[in-house]
Design a protein that fits this description.
This protein is 31% helix and 20% strand. The protein has helices at 5-25, 33-36, 54-62, 67-76, and strands at residues 50-52, 78-79, 93-99, 105-112, 117-124. By secondary structure, the chain is an alpha+beta fold. It has a 5-stranded mixed β-sheet. The protein has a domain at 33-124. The relative contact order is 0.15.
Amino acid sequence: MKKAIPYILLLLLAIAVLLIKRCHQGGEAPVDPAKEVNRNHGLDRRTAFLEYTKHALCRMDCRHITEEEIKYILLNGKISYRKSDVNDKPCPTYAVEGYSTENQHLRVVFAQCDHSTKVVTCIDLDHDFECHCPGDDNKHEQ
């Protein structure tokens, strides 16, 4: 029995090390998701990268569209390649269409850049809203 005590202690020590490692794994800094996924192949639908342009925020306010609805469309909508420009520079743009949880028929245009996915604009496909967003006055002059 005396010969077994060192082996038992060694086994208990190994178990303790494994338990401590497992407890500390939850507290580690998160891995940068941008390094894990190649964002240059199709639309990255993770909502953690979303940024909103001033124009998009104005359109959302005018058309009563929430950030939650934008995220829902990103996750569940279908890409309309007719309305998208995957060769757009500096960031490819994707027009994603679907019905929100509030049953609004929406098209949201996302520009997928290296480190962010920008919400460019959003459109209610069933209802016209009169919006007065910055830049609207001179859009027809170009």
